[in-house]
Amino acid sequence: MTDLLKQNLTRHAALTPEEIEQFHLLFEPRFVKKKSFFLRAGAVCDSEAFVVQGLFKVYHVDAHGFEQVLYFAMEDWWLTDIDSFVNQRPSELFIEALEDSEILTISKPSKDLAYQRIPALNKLYRVMTEKTHVALQRRMLANLSKTADQRYVDFIEKYPRLAQRLSNVQVAAYLGISHEFLSKIRKKISRH
Amino acid sequence: MTDLLKQNLTRHAALTPEEIEQFHLLFEPRFVKKKSFFLRAGAVCDSEAFVVQGLFKVYHVDAHGFEQVLYFAMEDWWLTDIDSFVNQRPSELFIEALEDSEILTISKPSKDLAYQRIPALNKLYRVMTEKTHVALQRRMLANLSKTADQRYVDFIEKYPRLAQRLSNVQVAAYLGISHEFLSKIRKKISRH
DNA sequence: TTCACTTATTGAACTAGTTCAACCTGCGCC
DNA sequence: GGCGCAGGTTGAACTAGTTCAATAAGTGAA
Fold first, then answer.
1. Residue A97 sits in which domain range?
2. Is residue A192 part of a domain?
3. What are the DSSP E strand ranges found in chain B?
């Protein structure tokens, strides 16, 4: 079960086997039932998590009660509100399990300790943050330039397995459109 | 002239004076005239830069020839296409001077060398990337939830000095709306 | 089996934002 | 001094996307 985590850590930067072993011992397993929360707006994000099994939605709720999805996290993804976790300030995000899930969590004190003891972790998280930032930049540009139709097609092409596990309501909240309009897009596309 | 850079470096992580001195020596000054480019799509981003004086636009040009602005960089900001710089692959972005500008550049080999010699830089750039990522997340959520009116008001409140130096065409390309529509928004707002 | 609830679809009326074309500055340049 | 031209405004016609309300199908719990 922690093999997936170890593989993930190895992918981004060259840590020694000892460093990986030492780091992964700081994680604790936890089960999160469908519809319950890893983080709620207003609370401080006091731990980060790696998804071993299951699916989560990371989202914001605006003044009108509408949800905007920042990202979905399934197996091999990370859960965190960087701002809240790093600065230990109240979060503005919700992180909710969409399926019964299994995660590995690391507390803020443990991670701070790890940064001190394993300096190479700074490089690891620098590289990981760079990658997620590049992905978000691409999404930002796509949102500024493409129609909802194109963004929907791009989404199901880029994340086919994820798309299968999501309702259209969830996908619409990610694309930034109403679920009714997504339904109309799907109809149009299905007619070729 | 390099004082601004040193201050900027100090702001994000605790480097020793020696480390800052050693790092800043790797930067070279360069002048970029208005309307000329620091980076063009298709080229590899072989250096990063810190803006000492002037103003730049970092943007993408889509298939229809429309520009989408990723961000503007004035004094005390950084210029880079992270993806192209880190992975040394052709960029999809343009970085163009909107005013006669003065920058400090560091080449890819110099920065790689610096990471080796000054491990604390990994923490510095981890923290800087985290901050820009958080800012982009907020912008993404704002774009998904707010109308163009609200986004325009937010923009001039958040970056009042920057907004003064930009034409409405540039601001519209940042907000993701046509400049004609921005003009109508401005008229509506000016009537209180 | 029934009840409550979530999910998806559809249509009609509406609104936010685009597109195109016209026009009006101000301003640098030869 | 006139010329070209980038920047901003405006209006009219259009399109992308929303909102609201109705309907139907599936699902899980008691």
1. 3-117
2. no
3. 28-32, 37-39, 47-53, 55-61, 67-74, 78-79, 94-97, 101-107
